[in-house]
Structure formats: C-alpha cells, structure tokens
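retry 2 of 3: previous attempt timed out while embedding guanosine-5'-diphosphate. Reduced batch size to 1 and resubmitted. Inputs unchanged:
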Amino acid sequence: MKIISAEFVKSAVWPAQYPPGTMPEIAFVGRSNVGKSSLMNTLVGRKKLAKTSNTPGRTQLINFFVINESISLVDLPGYGFAKVAQSVKKDWGDMMETYLRERPNLTMVISILDIRRDPNPDDLSLHEWLNHYRIPYVVVLTKTDKLSNNQAIARKRLIEKALGATVHQRALLFSAKTQRGKEELWQILENHLNSLGKQ
Ligand code: GDP
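retry 2 succeeded.
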C-alpha cells in the first residue's frame, strides 16, 4: 500500500466522541510497551504517527487516524500493566468492550504480542471478546529481531497454542526494527479490505 497521507483525527473515550464511522476501520491493540506504536509507525511509514513511549499508564485514550483519506486506523489503549488500580482496569475494560461492541465500521483488529512473552490473562480475555463479538483479527508477534529464527518459530507455535488459534489464525512474525512482516501484514489488510468491497 502506498501511503499518500496519514493524519491524526482525534482522541476519544466513549462512542459519542468517536469520529463518524464512514471508513473501514482497523484497530491495533496490545499490552503496554508491546511495540504497538512502533508497529503502526512502521506500517504507515511515519516515524511519529503513533507516539512511541516507554511510559506505561500514560493517559489512556482511543486514538483515531486516517490514511489515504479512506482507511481509519485506531490505536487502542495499552493494557495489562500490573501496578494500576482495579478501578483503572475496569475503566479500560469498559472503554475497550464498548468500542469493540459498538463500532459498526470496525472491520479488523490487529492483536499485538511480544514474541518473548506468553499470553497473559489480559491477552486471553481480549481474544475472548474478539471471538465473542466475531471480529476478524490477526495476531502479530513483534520484536522477533530479539530472537533467532528457530527460537521465533518455536515461540510462535507455543503462542498460537496458548491462544487456541485455528489454522486460519496463524500468527505473523514482525519486527519494527528490521521491518520483517511489514509487507505480509499489508497484504493481509489489503486482501481483507478488498473482500469487504465484494460482500
Ligand atoms: P507501545 O507502548 O506498545 O506503543 O510500544 P512502543 O512502540 O512504544 O515500544 C516499546 C519499546 O519497545 C520501545 O523501546 C521500542 O523501541 C521497542 N520496540 C518496539 N518494537 C520493537 C521491535 O520490533 N524490535 C525491538 N528490538 N524493539 C522494539
């Protein structure tokens, strides 16, 4: 995909604040610090589209972007940092579930995991929501540059098993550092967007 324009639209918490849902939307989600901003920046080819930050627990908002004036990209707030209060976790859960349940133009979720970490209960509940609301998703394993190729393949199998992935839900190996998987992920997204046009 050739990126001609990439713009930040707005931040929101609740549906009344979301921008109009007129374009197909792809949402990116993962634990804090997993490499979500780096992945989005890599995909779009902009260094600072989504802010890369090492500060878990910064203001947690849903951030909307538009690329090529035709595709909406959403940066969902990171989850799963151990030290936050239960009330913050509940607010995060309410915000996320509301978004996943009520956004009519959401067409696909990119679920991002660090290839070196096993899925934790937060990752598993996210996947339960995705299955429950029948939202198509792709699992992307980031930071593969930190492992050898053999290690990466072994970790991929373990994570797929832990998530109960079916044959159609194979995880994709990715690295923002080397750009591994960038073209493959775009191909998946483009095929998906094209298939929507044919429905
Ligand atoms: P976010 O909190 O999920 O948005 O994560 P960031 O994109 O801010 O990344 C968190 C940290 O991981 C930063 O220090 C990044 O430089 C680093 N990082 C992200 N992706 C990769 C990757 O593919 N390879 C390596 N080696 N580091 C990465």
